[in-house]
């Protein structure tokens, strides 16, 4: 991930070399492609004069709203079992730091996970996922990885997973989640379940999503970034739900210490908007439902375009992205100077005019020609176009959506 590229900046006659590999060039979460919900903007604006900072871990109001959110999903908890932070990255960093030992995670995994473990000096071991989904490790591969790590003198203690996954946009079947969690708990691993995308299911009445916390309540900490479905990505808020055990209480206290040391406090106006969103008034839930239905249609069309080229991709089930394997097009890509995922990232980002991170950002091998394709950019370039996409009965027939999909298809078709 540290390969150098020649950048386009120049000082006189000197070309400045720009390294495209490091973490600072890594991807943000998939862009929603929709304007801020007016009701949330009003709540934030009404709280804009609050000068005092939120307490570490979030105010009681924010934590109580998070408890109500989880209770509606069958996960009871009290405010003393919740912590909030300005985004999933600082929250996960604090959680990993609060646990001792080595970290296990699926391959591929969210772009920030491996850099965070490295930042803390923690060994991170990736475990293959099964053919049908990403986000959750294959149970047998997990057991073998734990055995191997211990044989080499390691101390595997923590498993990170995501039932509704970034980058693969898949949802793990409940039976796989159970088997993986039972295997992890039997080996003494604590589980951190990132459920940021659980409210973005494309077909919520057909797709069954079960939280690991429902299966192993004493051994799972749940994390949710509100940018998945409830708040804008520019207003970072994430919440964590800890088990109701003495050990978890100690880990929560340690997590709060770390967040405080980092200065990772949620801004008061953002906390007010987040608490409002977590209470899920109709305006918020209605926007989330419509956005998920819109992304389902656009992502399905993008998936068809990927398959039409001969490339591979699992059908997207959640989120606003899909994960494509362009390995079958390797020869055609090589003719264009694309031989790895970093070059593929640069090529498609230029061709599509939007960030298109390669699989190396998510822990896949550099030589594998995989890429995460966002679908939010297909909804329009102005707030007016985006709202039309959200409210139109046939969004794919809108001229701006049709044009964006045409460019998307053309960029892929020329690789055949």
TrEMBL record:
Source organism superkingdom: Bacteria
Gene3D superfamilies: Aspartate Aminotransferase, domain 1, Type I PLP-dependent aspartate aminotransferase-like (Major domain)
Organism of this sequence: Streptomyces castrisilvae
Protein name: Aminotransferase class I/II-fold pyridoxal phosphate-dependent enzyme
Family: Belongs to the class-I pyridoxal-phosphate-dependent aminotransferase family.
A molecular function (GO) term: transaminase activity
Keyword Transit peptide: no
One matching Pfam family: Aminotran_1_2
Coiled coil feature spans: none
Cofactor(s) in the UniProt record: pyridoxal 5'-phosphate
């Amino acid at each position: 991930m540290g390969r150098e590229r020649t950048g386009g900046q120049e000082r006189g006659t000197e070309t400045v070399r720009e390294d495209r590999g490091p973490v600072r060039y890594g991807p943000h979460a998939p862009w929603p492609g929709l304007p801020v919900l007016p009701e949330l903007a009003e709540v934030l604006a009404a709280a804009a004069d609050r000068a005092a900072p939120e307490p570490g871990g979030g105010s009681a109001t924010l934590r109580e709203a998070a408890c109500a959110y989880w209770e509606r999903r069958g996960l009871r908890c009290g405010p003393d079992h919740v912590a909030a932070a300005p985004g999933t990255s600082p929250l996960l960093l604090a959680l990993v730091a609060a646990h001792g030992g080595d970290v296990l995670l699926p391959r591929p995994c969210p772009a920030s996970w491996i850099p965070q473990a490295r930042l803390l000096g923690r060994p991170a071991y990736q475990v293959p996922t099964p053919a049908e989904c990403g986000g959750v490790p294959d149970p047998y591969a997990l057991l073998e990885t734990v055995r191997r790590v211990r044989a080499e003198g390691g101390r595997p203690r923590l498993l990170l997973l995501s039932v509704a996954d970034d980058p693969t946009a898949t949802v793990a079947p409940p039976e796989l989640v159970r088997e993986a969690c039972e295997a992890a708990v039997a080996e003494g691993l604590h589980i951190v379940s990132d459920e940021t995308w659980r409210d973005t299911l494309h077909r919520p009445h057909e797709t069954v999503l079960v939280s690991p916390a429902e299966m192993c309540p004493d051994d799972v900490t749940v994390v949710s970034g509100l940018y998945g479905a409830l708040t804008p990505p520019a207003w970072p808020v994430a919440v964590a739900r800890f088990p109701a055990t003495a050990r978890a209480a100690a880990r929560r206290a340690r997590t709060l210490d770390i967040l405080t040391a980092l200065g990772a406090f949620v801004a008061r106006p953002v906390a007010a908007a987040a608490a409002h969103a977590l209470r899920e008034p109709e305006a918020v839930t209605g926007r989330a439902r419509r956005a998920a239905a819109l992304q389902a249609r656009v992502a399905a069309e993008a998936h068809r375009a990927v398959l039409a080229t001969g490339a591979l991709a699992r059908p997207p089930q959640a989120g606003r992205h899909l994960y494509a394997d362009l390995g079958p097009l390797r020869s055609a890509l090589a003719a264009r100077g694309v031989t790895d995922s970093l070059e593929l990232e640069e090529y498609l980002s230029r061709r599509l005019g939007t960030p298109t991170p390669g699989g190396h950002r998510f822990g896949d091998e550099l030589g594998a020609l995989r890429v995460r394709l966002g679908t939010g950019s297909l909804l329009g370039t102005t707030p007016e176009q985006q709202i039309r996409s959200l409210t139109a009965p046939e969004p794919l027939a809108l001229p701006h959506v049709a044009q964006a999909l045409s460019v998307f298809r053309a960029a892929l078709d020329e690789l055949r």
